[in-house]
Known about the structure:
Order of helices and strands: EHHEEEEHEHHE
Number of strands: 7
Amino acid sequence: xxNVLKSSxxxxxxxxxxxxxAATDPAYEKVLTTDAPNAKDHPLTGRYQGSSILLxxxxxxxxxxxxxxxxxxxxYSSNKxxxxxxxAEGALTRTVYIVPKGRSSLEVFRNFTDSLASKGFKPxxxxxxxxxxxxxxxxKYNWNEKRTHVQDEGYDANRNRFVQAVFDxxxxxxxxxx
Length: 178
């Protein structure tokens, strides 16, 4: 039995130095400071002040497996998996934001989780960095696994270049399932 997914949230407040450096190119600067075409904030989450939507996937109906426990086994293991998953189906929105320089991933993460807690959401699983397990990043955000990417077919070449950088460049991992 699947839970009906009324709203899904993937908060990826990443500190990616390669994206910051890419901003020196005017074409990349435009990508990093303007919202992706047709992207919009989810009504339950809003956005962190001064951020822009780099990537977004919206589907009217789909299924998704959320990590609900830490990952097991090292990256190189063929037995790596999440210790627990929560499957859901329904409307799906996945968004990657670019946040203003000088903001920590913890600050942005707390902004989202505090806002959602004030709306009655409660954490079912939460982790950061090592507490997420040794292969969490590889299982959840892998540049080589297209199914993990957040992207839309309407993106131009410059925006598409950042998809792999985002999923290869996770530096300060923070995750919550609410």
